[in-house]
Write the structure tokens for this entry.
Amino acid sequence: MQSISVPSDGNVIVGMGASDDAGVYRISESSALVQTVDFITPIVDDPYLYGRIAACNSLSDVYAMGGIPLTALNIVCFPMGKFTLDVLSEVLKGGLAAMAEAGVQLLGGHSVDDPEMKYGLAVTGVVHPDRAVRNDAIRHGDAIVLTKPLGTGVIATALKAGTIDEAVMTPFVRSMSTLNRTASERMLRHGVHACTDVTGFGCIGHLREMLGGNSMEIIIDSKSVPLLPGARNAAAGGFVPGGMYKNRDFVGGLCSPDKAVSQDLLDILFDPQTSGGLLIALAEDAAGGLVSDLRASGITDAAIIGRVNNCKEQRITIK
């Protein structure tokens, strides 16, 4: 995409030149559009739950920017010769349930006959032009808060092998089916500096995005990172998705883990997530209040997992 020249527009606040979660376009002095698109292949067998998870995943980018999603369009790739339309109906009902909870109006969509099922949304939201939360606006002394536990990728891989029981499945589905709406609202109350959601790049990959062009070090306390039940067993059992290796390559030499950090935990930190939580950077003295507020709001896995320091070079240290 770097070879494509995009015409400039003074109303673009966040555009193609940024590695952010959504585009932001000013439409007035007090309002800007937030636009994003995302779709995924099935991560669970239940079509309704798949639809809900996919919609939550799509809406998350607007929440990460501090925006309010307003409307959405369905994006559907459906293998007509493989499944009945009843399956598609359940997928769309699941997506609609998530949109209804988010207060988002479905306006339409587009579908194609495709060998592999895919579903997601193109989402439009709003934010004040001066209050869009960027992913790379971290500051020296910031604390890093994570709002959902990690491990959806390794658990999904183990699920395909039939090794996941109900005790693991229930929190796995619940986490992915939860909107990041409340987390977004709470971070705005506590003076967020930067935010992104944890999805395909994994936790460490998205922390790399948060570094942006800043010469800073992000130090992660691996013992403080919340994990889904069964995630470590899945990783230790070798149920690691291929995306994890791509995420390691993406981060490259920026990441320096201590020798004491186990391999299964490292794998989870690089594990690509579906409908993951928010990574929030804010002043250290405000982080405790945010976590307390999040937990009181039902986001019980929220935790401070790291901090940001000035550095001569970009670095992510895992302790």
Notes: The mean pLDDT is 96. The radius of gyration is 19 Å. Residues 142-318 form a domain with the Phosphoribosyl-aminoimidazole Synthetase; Chain A, domain 2 fold (CATH 3.90.650.10).
